[in-house]
Design brief:
104 residues; mainly alpha; 88% helix
């Protein structure tokens, strides 16, 4: 994972999972290419299972990306429509967290 991917993934756990799934998919594709010459029955079965798992992982990663994008757009729209209420809520949450952290 290069620094740009790490920086992107570090902010949001969902982004990190998507990045990990992409890395896993790339590694699995490389493994499939490397083992293409192995014609044993067990290798064929393993390759087939890996292909199925890889397809599922790609679909899941794509769905998560779409959900994350939709959530970010909805949040942005809501904040732009109600900027003062958003600031008030953020301020209130900050004060509440400050009080809870400083309590003994």
């Amino acid at each position: 994972m290069d620094n740009a991917e790490f920086t992107e993934a570090a902010g949001n756990p969902r982004d990190k999972i998507v990045a990990d799934l992409r890395n896993l998919a790339a590694d699995a594709e490389e493994l499939l290419k490397v083992t293409a010459g192995d014609l044993s029955e067990r290798a064929k079965e393993a390759r087939a299972r890996l292909n199925v798992a890889l397809d599922k992982a790609r679909k899941s990663a794509h769905q998560w990306e779409e959900k994350a994008s939709a959530s970010a757009k909805a949040t942005d729209k809501l904040i732009r429509e109600h900027p003062y209420q958003s600031l008030g809520i953020a301020f209130g949450v900050g004060v509440l967290l400050g009080v809870l952290v400083n309590r003994r």
